[in-house]
Design a protein that fits this description.
Keywords: Signal. By secondary structure, this protein is mostly beta strands. The protein has one domain (21-228). The chain has three helices and 16 strands. The protein has a six-stranded antiparallel sheet with strand order 3-4-9-14-11-12, with no helix packed on it. A five-stranded mixed sheet has the order 2-1-16-10-13, with no helix packed on it. It starts with a helix and ends in a 9-residue tail after the last helix.
Length: 259
């Protein structure tokens, strides 16, 4: 293989590998499809992270409140609406619900009045925690993760724990009408596994009030960091290879014939 061809192939490999991941933001909100409640409106904009016009992934489920709910490998777009290659799987023991919150009437109403619930009470006993997993992330990379929890009952706490058990934070809503860590969101720096996954477990903590009952609630999430980019189509890669080879041949110097 000539030095020029080797150089071209090296540039091709670099072009295909460049930006395999880039810093970005993925926004997720949970809601209800309706049943006896008003369907959740899709939120647009920033919250603790992000800016005006950011697009959110709305994951809505029926509000049946019975049995296990969940879905696997939902493809997520970033805040600009572009495909990311990142997916979300979740399994809870409840569905989306829609209630009033301290943020009703504010720009964050569409984001914070609907939520997934898990670890609720049936006959006084817990029906189990919820588990959510992002996949397709950069292996071993650090991410900024925001977890929103604004329950319909002030004092109802939710404990969020990382899949490896190294991170744990309780969010206990107390009626604040602005974002306050510990009162309506958890704020983590979390490391993806070597398989490119981040897992969150949501479970209940005891209620500080005598009304209502314990339950784990999750309104939405924001994940910021190295977001996987789309892999070039095979046809695009082939065209790039042909173009680079043609460019190399065009600039190839003619060899002198022996006299």
């Amino acid at each position: 293989m000539s030095r020029r061809v080797a150089t071209i192939l090296a540039w091709l490999s670099l072009a295909l590998a460049v930006d395999a991941s880039a810093d970005g933001l993925i926004d997720v909100q949970f809601g209800t499809q309706g049943n006896f409640l008003t369907p959740t409106a899709q939120y647009s904009g920033g919250a603790v992270l992000g800016n005006t016009g950011d697009q959110w992934n709305l994951l809505a489920t029926p509000t049946s409140g019975a049995g296990s709910q969940g879905t696997s490998d939902v493809a997520l777009h970033d805040a600009a609406g572009a495909a990311t290659g990142v997916t979300l799987s979740y399994h809870t023991t409840g569905s989306g619900a829609h209630f009033s919150s301290p943020f009703t009437g504010s720009p964050y109403d569409a984001l914070l009045t609907s939520y997934l619930f898990a670890d609720s009470e049936v006959g006084g006993a817990s029906i189990g925690p919820g588990v959510l997993t992002f996949s397709g992330l950069a292996p071993n990379a650090n991410y900024h993760l925001i977890l929103y929890s604004v329950a319909d009952t002030p004092g109802r706490g939710t404990r969020f724990t990382s899949g490896d058990g190294l991170l744990s934070e309780v969010v206990r809503p107390a009626g604040q009408t602005s974002f306050v860590e510990g009162a309506n969101y958890a704020d983590w720096t979390i490391k993806a596994t070597r398989y490119g996954q981040v897992t969150v477990v949501m479970s209940r903590v005891e209620n500080t009030l005598t009304t209502g009952f314990p339950e784990a609630n999750l309104n939405g999430m924001q994940l910021s960091g190295a977001i996987a980019a789309a892999v070039p189509e095979p046809s695009s890669a082939a065209l790039l290879l042909v173009g680079l080879l043609a460019l190399g041949l065009r600039h190839r110097k003619p060899t002198k014939s022996a006299s």
